[in-house]
User: Which sequence fits this backbone?
């Protein structure tokens, strides 16, 4: 699935699923007052075996040039630390978290960039304001991804594009298994209302020409600390000493046996067009 794959249209979803909702309680507890946990997770991208880094791969597919661009759920703005924001006609970055918006304002972006704190399911923008909407690994943080997709469609101009990245259910399975084995399970997969497997149907309810493309490669981490920091980013409580000792034992054994702690990934970019 490395090449872009077209998705056939699907039937309409129940209208009740489109009611606006805030970010999930888990997302609020994780991200509303700090950006540290997100930064700990993003750091693992630097250990990808793909010679083309994620943000470079994404940039080559977004086509922001001369477009009015909206990114929803921008987080720490890592995408724009790797991309030239001046290529866009205008750039609007949003996040529900005040802490994230503060981080976004620290990035050196060109003068036509706006940062707004808002809910993805209730965007404070007029209809047909943007040519491109980007949702980079954020839809699974929402209680109602469907409500956000309705908003994305509303603010896009006719023929405008949505680019949304999501993970499959088997993404980072080795990390999930390790966390569960030491008493540090991740709540993300259980709480996710959308994954790469369910996205085609949801997207096809509101957009046409839905395609998907998988980002190839896996993570190979040569020392324990990045894995431990990733596990530590889950939940509201700090890792216990026993959890860290047990996890470190497993990680170091894997590194000793295989040269690195290997983590399979399933990251998928969806592209769709507003009718």
Assistant:
């Amino acid at each position: 699935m490395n090449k872009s794959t077209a998705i056939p249209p699907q039937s309409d979803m129940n209208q009740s699923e489109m009611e606006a909702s805030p970010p999930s309680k888990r997302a609020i507890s994780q991200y509303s007052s700090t950006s540290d946990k997100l930064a700990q997770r993003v750091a693992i991208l630097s250990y990808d075996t793909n010679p083309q880094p994620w943000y470079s791969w994404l940039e080559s597919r977004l086509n922001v040039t001369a477009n009015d661009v909206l990114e929803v759920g921008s987080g720490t703005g890592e995408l724009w630390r790797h991309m030239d924001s001046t290529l866009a006609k205008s750039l609007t970055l949003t996040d529900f978290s005040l802490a994230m918006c503060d981080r976004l304002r620290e990035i050196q972006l060109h003068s036509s960039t706006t940062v707004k704190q808002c809910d993805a399911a209730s965007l404070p923008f007029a209809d047909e304001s943007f040519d491109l909407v980007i949702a980079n690994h954020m839809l699974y943080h929402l209680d109602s991804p469907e409500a956000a997709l309705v908003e994305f469609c509303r603010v896009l101009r006719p023929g405008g594009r949505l680019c949304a990245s999501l993970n499959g259910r088997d993404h980072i399975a080795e990390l999930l298994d390790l966390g569960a084995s030491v008493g540090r399970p991740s709540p993300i997969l259980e709480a996710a209302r959308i994954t790469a497997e369910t996205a085609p149907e949801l997207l096809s309810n509101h957009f046409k020409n839905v395609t998907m493309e998988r980002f190839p490669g896996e993570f190979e981490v040569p020392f324990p600390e990045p894995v431990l920091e990733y596990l530590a980013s889950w939940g509201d409580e700090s890792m216990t000493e026993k959890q860290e000792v047990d996890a470190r034992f497993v990680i170091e054994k894997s590194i000793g046996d295989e040269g690195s702690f290997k983590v399979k990934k399933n990251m998928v970019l969806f592209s769709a067009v507003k009718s």
